[in-house]
Amino acid sequence: MLHGKNGTPTNPSISLLTNKLERNGFIVIVPEMPYSKSRFYDKSYEGTMAEIDAAVAELKKRGAKKIFIAGHSLGANVALHYATTASVDGVLALAPGHTPELKGFQARIGDSVDRARKMVKEGKGDERYCFNDVNQGKISAVCLTAKTYLSWFDPEGPAVMPKNAAAIKPGTALLWVIGTKDQMYERGPSYVFDKVPPNTHNKYIVVKSDHMNTPVDAAEEIIQWLKIFFLDHGSP
Questions:
Q1: Three-state SS across the chain?
Q2: First and final C-alpha spacing in the chain
Q3: Could you tell me which residues are beta bridge partners of residue 203?
Q4: CATH says 1-98+159-236 is which class?
């Protein structure tokens, strides 16, 4: 379970869902990600995949036979990309966020992206600078290297969800959950969901919720989807 941008593993929207999953017999690990409130992008987007590898290894050590990567907001974005690099049984994209390829997003951070590109071109990619970040429309400053910044915010980089959706490994099931009060709701399934490889367990769920509370408000639908998957594929 991957928390969202500036979040922590103990955020209520994550911890409440995690508790419900564990009460239903699922093994859940919630690592602190490089984009947490305290880490401030201390690894590149691609480098983050190694941390998920470690969590997957721990799940298998604890006896998990099937692996799902769930993520909230930016965590959902990262989970989609992970499924392009590793074989997992499914991805749970909960109130997905972080859309660097969209014009509205770039309008808020474009100057920072241009500066980071210039620094890399001048051989200063490993130098730190304070760039703009945007989270649910709100702009803040993050201080990190130009190379690392671009890995997260380049509109042609690895964090582009439509591109990652089309590239996830065949056989990976996708559960996409969006709230009616979420900015992403207006984009509908055509934005990302419709681009994933066909799978009988792919499902697009809409719940009456906002961006922050979607994971817990959709808990029953999430658990039901997982149980149906296991009924069709054997017990965990």
A1: CECCCCCCCCCHHHHHHHHHHHHCCCCCCCCCCCCCCCCCCCCCHHHHHHHHHHHHHHHHHCCCCCCEEEEECHHHHHHHHHHHHCCCCEEEEECCCCCCCCHHHHHHHHHHHHHHHHHHHCCCCCCEEEEEEEECCEEEEEEEEHHHHHHHHCCCCCCCHHHHHHHCCCCCEEEEEEECCCHHHHHCCCCCHHHCCCCCCCEEEEECCCCCCHHHHCHHHHHHHHHHHHHHHCCC
A2: 17
A3: 175
A4: alpha beta
Residue 23: name the closest of 201, 194, 226 by CA: 226
To which H or E segment does residue 139 belong?
A: strand 138-145
Residue 48, token pair as written in the block: 């983050």
> Is the pLDDT score of 236 beyond 60?
no
All structural domains of the chain with their residue ranges: 1-98+159-236, 101-157
Q: Are 44 and 147 in contact (CB under 8 A)?
A: yes
| Rounded-to-integer distance, Cα 14 and Cα 28, Å | 11
Q: Tens digits of per-residue pLDDT, 76-85? A: 999 999 999 9
Residue 67 is classified by DSSP as -
* pLDDT range class, residue 135, cuts 50, 70, 90: confident
Q: Give the H/E segment covering residue 79.
A: helix 74-85
Segment 12-44, tens digit of pLDDT: 989 999 999 999 999 999 999 999 989 989 999
Looking at the chain, the whole-number percentage of residues with pLDDT higher than 70 is 99
